[in-house]
Amino acid sequence: MAAFLIALPHFISGKYQYTDNIKTASMEHVSGLCQEVSNHQAASSNQTCSEVKSHANNAVFPILLLGQLLLGIGGVPIQPFGISYIDDYSNKKNSPFYLGILFALTVIGPALGYLLGSLLLRFYVDFNTMSPGEIVLHRKDPRWVGAWWLGFLLAGTLLFLTSLPYLFFPRSMITEETVEATPESGAEQLKEKEEAVSDTTHELSLLQFLKKFPHIMLRTLRNPIYLLVVLAQVNLAAMVAGLATFMPKYIERQFSQTASFSNMMIGGLSIPSAMLGIMAGGMILRRFNLSVKASAILCSSAVLLAITFALPLLFLGCPTQTIAGINPTNSESFSRYPNCSSTCSCSDEAFNPVCGSDGVEFRSPCHAGCKTPVNNSLNYTDCACVGPAGSHGNAVPGICGNNCAHLLLPFMIFSSLTCFLASLSQTPSFMMILRTVTPEDKSFALGIQFMLFRVLAFLPAPVLYGSAIDSTCILWGKKCNKNTSCQYYNLDYFRHRFLGLQTFFVFGGLVFFFLSFLVLKRAGLAQRRSLEQMNSATSEKQNMKDVKPFLK
User: Which one of 14, 168, 425, 458 counts the least CB within 10 Å of its CB?
Assistant: First the structure.
């Protein structure tokens, strides 16, 4: 239901509109050419902002919010109950391996989603209501919007079909026996496991649960290992939230790639690397049967290595392209801009980028002073702002780019290595939580953990990333004298602030994992001293018993 609600705005709102076309008698589509505009035409263009707005567009945002709300409600039980379920019904040695498989499979979904999004974004957003001949934009045009809504329809249908088999599972599963143990110890362990499961699955009424809730909450949050590991995971979850939301946009803007190609890079390289890291972490736990303290060392080491490979990303990027009137340059075109197009009456809302033959980019053909289109706007001539002063150059539709796409490959390599290393901590950190809380609090502790994920990571992190990215905008789009989306970014600021936040959150995860190791180390020393004191006291008592007969 949530997926269909999110796709609904496409069908109740009008067609996608972009600022481009001025219709003339000689040619049907002429994109924002330099021409004299009469006062009457200017007034009529301004009147469009005061026309009656569609009521359907006003309902779009609440529908999207409702869809996201339902999506969150539906996804809440899957992780905490699924993790607790697997840990309860499998032996202690196999549990990390099974959880590693679960976490890896949950990563496959986003990977397939990005790949599917890469395919669907190649289709125009209104392809279902427009013929191919009516679609003027090209996929490389920055105004291109792909069929974003189609993915929700496909994913919602597949999600419904895959949920049906769960209806046929039994209410309770058979507990996995410990194969490596002796029959006697195996029976004892199985009995203990069944007792733990019965405690975990003991049904409480709503009133009983509400009475015990404050006590369970305090008992869980007062566990220092649980709290530190959850805070470490919250930092890593905030990093993931930023990567999943804005990394395709970052690749698109930083390396002048299309949206579909950017999604393909994320789904084909970064997410599979994270999946391999999660599986490797589970296999390491199973192979070496790591203790809680050793798991903390593994998590700290993995995150430290991830930071090491993340730092070079801050220097792998492209400079901001030369944009007349926006990004300063020593080009002759910039020195005489905007006087060269002052008579063109260009609209501030116009955004139809063209690249001049001198490598300078303009917001529109009008801003470049172009007066003549060639081949149905595939090329522009007689552009007063292009080329040396006193001559009129040519321009082509689209952005000029920054000619550093060769840096994309090393960027993706370092990014994938960072994802792999950071993901090594996924399974060990969950096992630290499962092994340091009481069996009856296991499901509750995981529920609190995922609640903190959403409250402290997945809700504020995208807003924080979005604010940081917006602060790097150097030209906002305008419609009816209101800012819309950003048209141009300062790419250096974009890179440093976006990737700087990523590195900051990974470093936060390292700090809390290391603190958990220190707490475990101190607890181990205290326990060792206590045992030594007990052994010493026992030895003294035994010596007194041995000496006592000689004192008589």
Answer: 168
